[in-house]
Amino acid sequence: MDLESFLASKPLFYDVIDYERFPKAYLSVAPLLHLPKIIHIVGTNGKGSTGRFLATALSRAGKKTGHYTSPHILHFNERIWMDREDIDNVGLETAHQKLMGFLDDQTAKTLSYFEYTTLLAMVAFEKCEYVVLEAGLGGEFDATNVFDKVLSIFTPIDFDHSAFLGSSIESIARTKLRSMQTNALLGIQKHDEVETIAHEIALSKQCQLYKVQELTDTLICSLGLHLALKNGLSDYLRDNCELAMVAFELLGYKAQEALFDQNALFGRLSKISENVTLDVGHNPLAASAIAKAFQGKKITLIYNSYGDKDYREILTLLAPIIDTVAIIAVEEERIVSRPLLESVLAEIGLKYGSFESIDMNKEYLVFGSFSVAEAFLKRIKYP
After folding, report:
1. Are residues 325 and 373 in the same domain?
2. In the prediction, which pLDDT does 165 show?
3. What pLDDT sits at residue 308?
4. In a domain? residue 265
5. What pLDDT score does 282 carry?
6. Given this model, what pLDDT does residue 16 score?
7. What is the helix, strand, coil percentage profile of the chain, to 5?
8. Boundary residue ending a domain (233, 260, 287)
9. CA 377/CA 366 separation, integer angstroms
10. Could you write out the DSSP letters of every residue in 260-280?
């Protein structure tokens, strides 16, 4: 069975996660895998852009580098990136057939979509020197956490996936931070308790913990500022770029502007056209960063949301920059019902309607999940 058909047979989401299934599957194939040096990125926001900044810099520095990120927006190939290019279909299928030869039929069948994709990526990355591996859900129990790593990077940790991670910052932070191993770098945090818990876990694991604020020297600050001005990076993307620079230097290299001169991952405050910006953030922390980036402006928000997201808080945070909300139809069973979303918009006092088309005289922000981004890009036939 080819990869597309094989993945189509697997559900994308589960109500209950089997935390023992993937470690067992990994142990069965571990002797057959050639693992590169792994940099594990865990957090609530900023994983994708931080990872892409770092992976691109390593590649430009002459190190064959892979970057595993999820989910994708338009094409599955986006998840497996090597030396500044998405993997092609031939490479994907070759890795799939090789992995199917490693796994017994029952294991291959029972692995989740994300679990199988994680192993697939490691087969595809076998000739890399470094792989920047982005965690999916959580940290400690995430499929990406089974591999030994040379460095763990923690981006900002906030409320997200409470059904699996808990409803308090402490429970969420512990689940994510327990993925650290021998060396860890802690990015700028919104909640003080995250830093406290990080130190506690690092001590118990005898892990060397670094704080980005303590390692961000004058040169990195000036490089970050210059790149932000040059590439139009928001404050949070500048923070992610500087976090990647510090990680790069922890790996033994010297940060240089030419290595980090980029706009990072598509879908992170990406300019689709002169008057349309797209961002795949879908939680309150992302909404706060977006509101700050658009401060002083009034935009039309092209929006929809999964029902399990805190869309009430997200819309409240975005309200100061919103002129009107254009609800885009998304064919996805997890999307909130239209009447419920409309009732929340009315409660907040936001004008709303249905997304029809782009008016060149207005400024737009497409904000929400990867499904919202995909629906919008297909609707306008991008690129």
Report:
1. yes
2. 63
3. 81
4. no
5. 79
6. 66
7. 45, 15, 40
8. 260
9. 10
10. H-S--STTSSEEEETTEEEE-
